[in-house]
Amino acid sequence: MPSAVLSGRERPGRYWKIDLDTLELPTRADGGDVEISAPSARGLIACTLAQAERDHAELLARVLGKTGAQTTKFGALTAENRGLGAFVYIPADVSVDDPILITYRASAACYPYTVVLAERGARATVIERIEGAAGATVCGIVEVVTEAHADVTVATVQNLPEDARVFATRDAKPGEGAHVSWAIADLGAALVVGSADVRIEHEGANVDISALFFPRGTQHVDLITSIDHLAPNASSETVVKSAATGRGQARYLGNIRIVKDAQGSLANLRDDALLLSKTAHIDSIPALEIAANDVKAYHGATVGAIDAELLFYMESRGIAREAAERMIALGFFEPAIARFPTEILREEIREGLRAKIV
Amino acid sequence: MSATGLRITDLHARVEEKEILKGIDLVVEPGKVHALMGPNGSGKSTLAFSLTGHPKYQVTQGTVTLDGEDLLAMPADKRARAGLFLSFQYPAAIPGVKVANFLHAARQAVRPDSLPPAKFRKLLMDKMETLDMDPVFMTRYLNDGFSGGEKKRLEMLQLAVLAPKYAVLDETDSGLDVDALRAVGDAVGALRESDEGKETGFLIITHYPRILQYITADVVHIMIDGRIVKTGGPELANRVEREGYDTIREETGAIA
Asked: Is 0.90 surpassed by the pTM of this model?
């Protein structure tokens, strides 16, 4: 499995109090609904998972369980409680310009399962919004399989109430020369446990992962991204921007693995964490494992407070310290925000972040 | 009326444990241009940062008032709102913050609600034209990836947009070609001719006299080793041009 490089989910310690191994989730789904809207395009299917199981079983079978998503602890729970979900199918050579929108509204315990299949040369953007009631538990999967030269972006904005919990397992397999992009914005929830994996089994794939999160109060975020370069001449770029304030905590583990046969790979990982209070904490761990010799791999990680010189510059223009901190912190997220599809969604994310920096 | 002006009296300041300013006395009157010249390491930038309240610079003695207000008692942002502006020698780059948004926030902070957005936009466009700046600047991130010349132009644009009571230009001329120098001169000239800026007093800090070909100074001060050792008219700048700082240093007995 892609995430086998390092679990990263070490035992609770000084900062991290939650033991994910022993954490228990409700054993049955008891709430939540999904709303799906899609532009019209030739042969495009965007329907509930239940309808797909009834009417498009063969298509669904080409993706469902074909990635590693169901093998993780939380992914297995989603699979077990399967019911709520969405299925998107883009036939060969169909380009869908406007995004396909999927909105989950969780009530109590909710196990959403999103499945995306893109055939050869197909192109689409899927925007997933996760909202819900106070105290909700959301444990979901997104699985993406593409054929050669497809181009699929899946963006998720999670804005659950700050006492909710969310567990998200994302796994993609791009075809030859295909482009797959995960964009993840975790704004809400008391506990976020997320993963985004891509397993590159075909030559020349191009993969992006962009993530941003901002725990405040007592929020916890735990994110693992993993890109496995198993085929030659593929490229990947991972950009993660996180900030924490109050007693917010986060762990981020960024795995890049390039196996011996994956010559000509290009991998880039950029991960920056901004601490806005003395009690906030972010652990940021880039992990690169490279067995091939003809590759280019870069990684850079920073963790720190706002640079005093930046603050002084803004203050010297009359901008009060708190306003200056807000502007700098929001600006800090921009390189990740810029990688999300549609200006509406980007503005929604900025608005969500603004609301968190008070 | 004796209180008007940017009045610096017996100012001592240190950086970390080192005393850099050893008693500066200087008064910049409204509408006047003072040049502060001196060799590297004489303390010119320390004066600029001490006036504007940089946290790394500690004032240990002396007073500074801006039109009668005690400047040293204020945090940096209040000093700016009181009417003080510093053009940085090395402006900070702030990724993700667009120039237009930054300028608007700064203008709002310094001159609250003085312009509705449409008029602010018009003001920006006018000032940018004066500075020969491409409007695309507005959508770029603040100083992020800017060339040295672009950064200085943006400092001058901020000067124009904020129209402060007193402006300190810290080595704004360093590293600029003739065109950029002229743009700086034009920006200062345009501000001095505008309604908002006709009373602005300038303290132009420079190592080289050439900027003074583009901005005429009323008074020239020479600073060596943390003290102002000589004050005179524009002819003093010409003398620096001819002789450098050494003869002035010898003549005034300043310790190198």
From this structure: no
Q: Which of B56, B97, B109 is opposite residue A328, by nearest beta carbon?
A: B97
CA distance B214 to B216: 6
Task: Quote the CA–CA distance of B256 and B242 in Å, as a whole number.
Answer: 20
B-chain residue closest to A321, CA distance:
B77
Strand (E) or helix (H) holding B60: strand B57-66
Mutate to test the interface with B, among A313, A330, A333 (most CBs of B within 10 A): A313
Residue A18's Cβ-count burial label (10 Å; 0-12, 13-18, 19+) is middle
Q: Kindly report the number of other CB atoms within 10 A of residue A21's CB atom.
A: 10
Q: B158 in contact with A at a CB cutoff of 8 Å?
A: yes
Q: pLDDT averaged over consecutive 10-residue blocks of chain A (358 residues)?
A: 46 75 83 94 97 98 96 94 96 98 94 98 98 94 98 97 96 98 97 97 98 95 96 98 94 95 97 95 92 95 94 97 94 96 96 89
Amino acid at site B184:
V
- Residues constituting chain A: 358
Per the CB < 8 A criterion, the answer to whether A113 and A85 are in contact is yes
Place of tokens 């502007």: A327
